């Protein structure tokens, strides 16, 4: 089993920077701004022969109010899950009352705690570290997470009392499989984090009645009925003109990256609000990436019949371009309809990775041609000969023939709908790619034999005689 280490400390001491350094990624947003990280973030890391899991947490000050209380609960939950705690402090600030308070809390938890003094670059290391001995957590380890200094020495201390990889025979068996990756996306405050917690069955991410609570894309692996999933809680995407903070711009980028990384996207819409242009823009991006899509109309409970009929008409009118997506009317807060999402997610995932043989796809093409022939172009019929699979997620069908570059959009849609119906594809877009075969005689010149040349000369002479007779008349 992989060891798990939780990074805890006051806000802005460099926990996310160290997280990115250990995981060799940019999964955690980093900025010179306290309180940026809110939900706990998991990441896989490797050092020498050791594999381990790191948890990035929000900062703890000891006087949390409002949403900060939820952040503190998330951090304490990470401490409970971890085998050891890396307690980060700021060398440039020194020991603070918040550090002393948090050190007392960690001692009561009875977990191995390693004191990590960050941001020692440019300072006298011996003098700075000496001040932190009074926290009573053993020998401090000095690092500069931003530049990677001292991290190897820190990990040596951490792994000193852990078993070697060969002493843990189940390490490979415990390797986490990601399973179906599904991203929960939508505008701010539509209930994405509430839906994530409901699907997980625990308060895994912070839910607060304030738009923009979630700032980072949080990957959460779990298992349900023997099927592995990785759910991605993302930040809400607002209209571009309203995105002013640099942090929010990074959050939007992370959300779009999560969409590209996912297998299935669950788009959450607010049933109590109209469908706006930003919803359509986000759906358009999902469609461009080719990801499978499930629509969840949230906050459906307590609505009057007239309001329900209004939103259904709005969906039918404005979301025709994603008619392949399954629509669910749910209440993330009370759990109504949430369980049905898994069936559509599984179906969309299976459809996205469906593989079919060339003879089967060619038979579908032939039947489609029999029912409705391609149009004429300059008096010549477009010929489509055979089809085969060109890729998955989304399914790609490659059709070979002549003049395929002139196939009109209407006929392309006809073929897409035909392949979708016969292949039993639901919840994912299907793409058609046409390829025109090369003319084997292009660039070649026919060489005539002496007999053919003589015959040609006789025919030319004959036509000339006929022309002279016509003129004499």
Account of the protein in words:
The chain is of the alpha/beta class. It folds into 3 domains: 4-167, P-loop containing nucleotide triphosphate hydrolases (Rossmann fold, 3-Layer(aba) Sandwich), CATH 3.40.50; 180-352, 3-Layer(aba) Sandwich (Rossmann fold); 358-436, K homology (KH) domain (GMP Synthetase, Chain A, domain 3). It has helices at 15-23, 67-81, 97-108, 125-130, 151-159, 192-200, 246-261, 277-289, 305-318, 340-352, 358-371, 409-423, 450-472, and strands spanning 4-9, 41-47, 50-56, 84-90, 113-118, 141-142, 180-185, 218-224, 227-233, 264-270, 292-298, 326-329, 376-377, 380-381, 383-391, 396-402, 431-436. The chain has a 6-stranded mixed beta sheet, with helices on both faces. Helix 12 (409-423) links the parallel strand 16 (396-402) and strand 17 (431-436). Helix 11 crosses helix 12. The radius of gyration is 32 Å and the shape is elongated. Residues 29-38, 64-68, 165-176, 206-215 and 238-250 have low confidence and may be disordered.
Topology:
Elements: E1 4-9, H1 15-23, E2 41-47, E3 50-56, H2 67-81, E4 84-90, H3 97-108, E5 113-118, H4 125-130, E6 141-142, H5 151-159, E7 180-185, H6 192-200, E8 218-224, E9 227-233, H7 246-261, E10 264-270, H8 277-289, E11 292-298, H9 305-318, E12 326-329, H10 340-352, H11 358-371, E13 376-377, E14 380-381, E15 383-391, E16 396-402, H12 409-423, E17 431-436, H13 450-472
Parallel strand pairs: 1-3, 1-4, 4-5, 5-6, 7-9, 7-10, 10-11, 11-12, 16-17
Antiparallel strand pairs: 2-3, 8-9, 13-14, 15-16
